[in-house]
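Posting for a labmate who doesn't have an account.
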Amino acid sequence: MIGLATTIALLRGLHLAGCLSLLGGGGFIAWMLPAAWVVADRLANRLRLVCLVSGGVALLAGAAWFALQAAAIAGAGTLADAGGALPVVALHTRYGHVLMARLGLLLGAVLLVAPRSATRQAPLPATKAARRGGARARLYGAIVLTAAALSLEGLIGHAGATAGTLGDGLVLSESLHLLAAGIWLGALPPLWFSIRALPPGAAAAVCERFSPIGLGCVLLLAGTGLAQGMQLIGSLPALFGTRYGHFALLKIALFLLALMLATINRLWLTDRLTAEAPGAARRLRVSVLIETGIGLAIIAAAAFMAASPPAAESTPVWPFAWLPGPVTNPEAWREVAAIGALLAVLGVALVGAALLWWRRRRADDNRGAWHPRQPDQATERSSK
C-alpha cells in the first residue's frame, strides 16, 4: 500500500508536470508554431486546450498536495484535524505562503490561456487581426505567470532551506532548471499533436524550429543540474550511497536517454519526414511519445529527490567496498564533477557539429551538389 510520504511525492510530481506542460505548451504556440500558416490557427486552439487541461491538472494536484502536506505538518489524525490545519499552514508557514501564491499565479495563467474564440469566426479581417493580437497577448501573459509560479519551487525545496548567498544561488539555479525543463519537456505533447495534425513539410519545419530551443534548454539543464548536485550531493559516497543520490542517478540516466532520443529525432527522423518517407511521421510520433514518458519519469524522480533529505546531509553507505580508498574521498567529487562537465560539453559540441554537418549536407543536396539520379534522368529524356 502506498504510504503518505509516497502519495505526497507523487502529487507533487503531478503538480510539477502540469506546470511544466502549461509553460511548454504556451511557449510552443508562441515560439515554435509559425503564425503565418492558416492551419496553425486551428492547431493553436487545440494546443490551448492541452494547456488548459495541463493547468487544471496542476491546480487540482497542487491543492491535493497542499491538503496532505498540511495534514502531515500538523500531525492530523482525523479529517477534522486535517481541515483545521489548512488555514493555519496556509497563513503561518512559508510553505503555505509560497504554494498559495503559486496556485494563484497558475489560476491566472489558466484563465488567460483558455481558448475563447475557437468556434467563432471574425466577420472582418481587422476584427480577426485584433482578436488574434488579443489572444497572443493573453498567451504571453499566461507564459509569464506560469514561469513565475515555477520559479517559486526553490523556495519550498532544499534550495530554500539553505541559508545565505549559497541558498540564494541554489534558488536561482533551480528556477532556471525548471524553466528550461518546461520549455523542453513541456513542449513535447504539443510537438506530438503538431506532427499528427500538420502535413509532413510543415511538421518537419516545426521540428526544426524546436531543435535550437531544445538544445539551449539541454545546456541550461546540464549546467544548473551540475551546480545543484555539487552542493546538495557533495561527494561520490553520497551519490552512490544515499536515497537522494540514487534518485539523482536515475534522473541523470533518464536525462541522457531523453537527450539520445531527441538527437535521433533531429538527425534522422525529421529529415525522413522532410523527404516524406513512408512511415516517417508515425516513427517520429512514437519517438516523441517515448521521450514524453521519459520526461514524466524524470519529473517523478525529481519529486522523490525533493521528498528525501539532501545527500550532503545524510550518512552514506558506500556500496563499492572493493574500490580503493581515495575514490571515496569527498574531495574527489569535485574532480569527477569537473571531468563530467567537460565530457558533457564535448558531447553537446559533437551533437551540435553533427547537426551543422547534416544541415550543410542537405543544403548542398538541395543546390544540386550531389544528385546521382539526375544524369540518368537527363540521358533518358534525350534518348526519347
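Reply:
Got it, the C-alpha cells are right above this. Residues 118-122, 367-384 have pLDDT under 50 and may be disordered.
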